[in-house]
Each structure stands twice: as C-alpha cells, then as structure tokens.
C-alpha cells in the first residue's frame, strides 16, 4: 500500500495569511493526487485533482502543485470559510489511501 | 448534478452485519463509480472499496476483504455496502462517494453523501 504523510498535522493562521500544506507519498504516484476539504460534521469536498487541477466552483486562492512523491496545497489568502481539515489522497493504485489530515484553525 | 442520499444511522452488536444504502439521483448509476469511505470519530478517512472503471469490477481494500460486499441495484439507482462480523472499532461514519466513469475527475471522490453513522456496541 502507498503510505501518505502530511505536514503539519495542524496549524493556526489568521485571515489573509498564506498557508501551505505538504503531502508526501511512499511511492512515485506521478500526478495522481487529490485534495479534499472537510468541515466539522460534514462530508469532504473535492478541491484539487490530478495534483494541480482546480475543481469547478473552488475559489482560485486554492492551488496545488507537485509530482512524484511531494505535493503541496496552497491557500494564497486564508478566508474565514477555509478553517477546516485538509486531506490528500492518492489515486495511483488501490487501495486508495488518504493522508492523516491537516487541521487549519484560527490563530 | 449528482445527489446522494444515504440510509439512516444504525446501532449494531459485535458480530452482526450492517447494510447501508446510497440512492443516486441526477445521474445514471451505470455512468458512475461508487466508492465507500469511512471515518471513525475524530479520525481520518479510510477507503473500503469501490468500482474500478478501468477493470470493470469492484475492488475491496485488503483490510476488509471477506467482510465487505458492495452491490448496486440499477432499477432503483441504489448502491449498497454490507459489512459483516462487526467489531467495536468499526464504529464510524460511512460515506458513499461517486465519480464519473470517464472524464478528468474519474480518479477522484467527486460527490459525497451526507454519511451514515454506524455504532457497534454491546
């Protein structure tokens, strides 16, 4: 199975801050990497797919980059509605695996 | 637009089975890959299995092999996930999630349901 790590596991930030979350995989997955946002009590929402492609309707302040084993999710200017937990997920092979999540909360 | 409606919360005893349904509307079930993902309280996301359009079959995570079964009833546009031999640690919210069988989001969990809480307790 492909192992996923994320860093940091949590962070505190202020509205307007630039936030960067890193995801690493135990094997080369090319660009088969997706990012999800989950708010408390709700199902996850797809943000980014294929490492850098923005899902329809997702604000342009979200961006993804990377390939191989190292990936990044960036929020260019954090907004109040962005406080949530973010998960990366690989779609290169089964089982589909998720990172452990990064919780972004208010400083 | 795809919409997913799951069945209600369940409470089961250890050793029992649970069957969760996911009704699809707005799209044909045969044009979607349906997956099941669970989340234990306060924990992360775990994939149980789903339809692989490349191979045309349902794939199960090794961790659940022999205990999970995923089926579809196209006449009612409903997908089902049955988990047997339940353990306390199977307590979780179970989500169905779909993606188109073709197109750029084929490899994602594109649309998620609201989730079904399954509690396993003696």
Q: How widely separated are the two ends of chain A?
A: 36 Å
Radius of gyration of chain A: 13 Å
Quick one: biggest sheet of chain A?
A: 7 strands, mixed
Q: What's the rounded overall pLDDT mean of chain A?
A: 97
**What's the helix count of chain A?**
0
| Uncertain parts of chain A | none
- Strand residue percentage of chain B: over 45%
Ends apart, CA distance between termini of chain B: 40 Å
The helix/strand order of chain B is: EEEEEEEEEEE
| Large-scale geometry of chain B | globular
What are the defining features of this structure?
heterodimer; A: 107 residues; mainly beta; four-stranded antiparallel beta sheet; 50% strand; B: 122 residues; seven-stranded mixed beta sheet; 11 strands; globular
SSE topology:
The complex is a heterodimer of chains A (107) and B (122).
Chain A: E1 4-7, E2 10-13, E3 19-25, E4 33-38, E5 45-49, E6 53-54, E7 62-67, E8 70-75, E9 85-90, E10 97-98, E11 102-106
Parallel strand pairs in A: 2-11
Antiparallel strand pairs in A: 1-3, 3-8, 4-5, 4-9, 5-6, 7-8, 9-10, 9-11
Chain B: E1 3-6, E2 10-12, E3 18-25, E4 32-39, E5 45-52, E6 57-60, E7 68-73, E8 78-83, E9 92-100, E10 111-112, E11 116-120
Parallel strand pairs in B: 2-11
Antiparallel strand pairs in B: 1-3, 3-8, 4-5, 4-9, 5-6, 7-8, 9-10, 9-11
């Amino acid at each position: 199975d492909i192992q996923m790590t994320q860093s940091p596991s949590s962070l505190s930030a202020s509205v307007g801050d630039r936030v960067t979350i890193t995801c690493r995989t135990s094997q080369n997955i090319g660009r088969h990497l997706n990012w999800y946002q989950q708010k408390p009590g709700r199902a996850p929402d797809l943000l980014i797919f294929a490492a850098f492609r923005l899902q329809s309707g997702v604000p342009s302040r979200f961006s993804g980059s990377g390939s191989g084993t190292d990936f990044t999710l960036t929020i260019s200017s954090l907004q109040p509605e962005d406080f949530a937990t973010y998960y990366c997920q690989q779609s290169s092979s089964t089982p589909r695996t998720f990172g452990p999540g990064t919780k972004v909360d208010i400083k | 637009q795809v919409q997913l409606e799951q069945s209600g919360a369940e409470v089961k005893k250890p050793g029992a089975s649970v069957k969760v349904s996911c009704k699809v509307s707005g799209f044909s079930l045969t044009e979607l890959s349906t997956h099941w993902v669970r989340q234990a309280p306060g924990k992360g996301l775990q994939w149980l299995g789903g339809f692989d359009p490349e191979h045309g079959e349902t794939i199960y995570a090794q961790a659940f092999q022999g205990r999970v079964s995923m089926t579809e009833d196209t006449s009612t546009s409903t997908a089902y996930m049955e988990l047997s031999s339940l353990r306390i640690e199977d307590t979780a919210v179970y989500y169905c999630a779909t993606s188109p069988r073709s197109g750029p989001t084929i490899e994602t969990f594109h649309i998620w349901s609201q989730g079904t809480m399954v509690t396993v307790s003696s």
